Amino acid sequence: QLQLQESGPGLVKPSETLSLTCSVSGGSISSSTYYWGWIRQPPGKGLEWIGSIYYSGSTYYNPSLESRVTISVEASKNHFSLNLNSVTAADTAVYYCARQLASGWYLGWFDPWGRGTLVTVSS
Amino acid sequence: EIVLTQSPGTLSLSPGERATLSCRASQSVRSSYLAWYQQRPGQAPRLLISGASSRATGIPDRFSGSGSGTDFTLTISRLEPEDFAVYYCQQYGSLPFTFGPGTKVDIK
């Protein structure tokens, strides 16, 4: 059964870079059928897609965050990572990683999801 | 960007009742590329429905989805205690992928 696990610092200072890793177990990140995504959820609020990456390194980003986001993949370690720079308090959220279906002509739904990790931006 | 609006914001019902949740898109969702997720308190979202009407693996048949174009519906035929949660719709027909603000189903 595929499982995803987010890891990284729970506290980041304003203006610094938020860095998280999603470790994938029970399946290969190099599958041709899937992208791998990051989604976040501020406390008490809704969900926001951040971006998605293919094992080859091809990426899609949300334009609202694109100038500050980098998503990378290390297939040999079966994990992918999120870097978000110049963070502010507005970036405080639970960050989830998830597998995303990749059909021949579209990217699909997210399933399954990791349990999420809370990142607080504060000095 | 496609903006999704969900209504009502909160739905107060009793176990055994039927729940009808709406998701409306600001423009047509290509090929009904719409998913529904359930999020219980303190948990990650769980996929319920993809392609507007296809139940995900292991999802009970009391959950059903319908709709096309700009109007979509999630129906829970008979609410079980574990169904009281927040439900989100998400479109994947065009970039950026977007989620609705959610409908909370709580116990009356």
Topology of this protein?
The complex is a heterodimer of chains A (123) and B (108).
Chain A: E1 3-7, E2 11-12, E3 18-25, E4 34-41, E5 48-53, E6 59-61, E7 69-74, E8 79-84, E9 93-102, E10 107-113, E11 117-121
Parallel strand pairs in A: 2-11
Antiparallel strand pairs in A: 1-3, 3-8, 4-5, 4-9, 5-6, 7-8, 9-10, 9-11
Chain B: E1 4-7, E2 10-13, E3 19-25, E4 34-39, E5 46-50, E6 54-55, E7 63-68, E8 71-76, E9 86-91, E10 98-99, E11 103-107
Parallel strand pairs in B: 2-11
Antiparallel strand pairs in B: 1-3, 3-8, 4-5, 4-9, 5-6, 7-8, 9-10, 9-11
Structural commentary:
The complex is a heterodimer of chains A (123) and B (108). Chain A is mostly beta strands. Chain A has no helices and eleven strands. Chain A has strands at 3-7, 11-12, 18-25, 34-41, 48-53, 59-61, 69-74, 79-84, 93-102, 107-113, 117-121. In chain A, a hairpin with a 4-residue loop joins β7 (69-74) and β8 (79-84). In chain A, 40% of the residues are buried. The mean pLDDT of chain A is 97. Chain B has no helices and eleven strands. In chain B, the strands form two sheets. In chain B, strands 2, 4, 5, 6, 9, 10 and 11 form a seven-stranded mixed β-sheet that branches. The A-B interface holds A 46-49, 60, 62-64, 96, 101, 106-116 and B 1, 31, 33, 35, 37, 43-47, 50, 56, 88, 90, 92-93, 95-102.
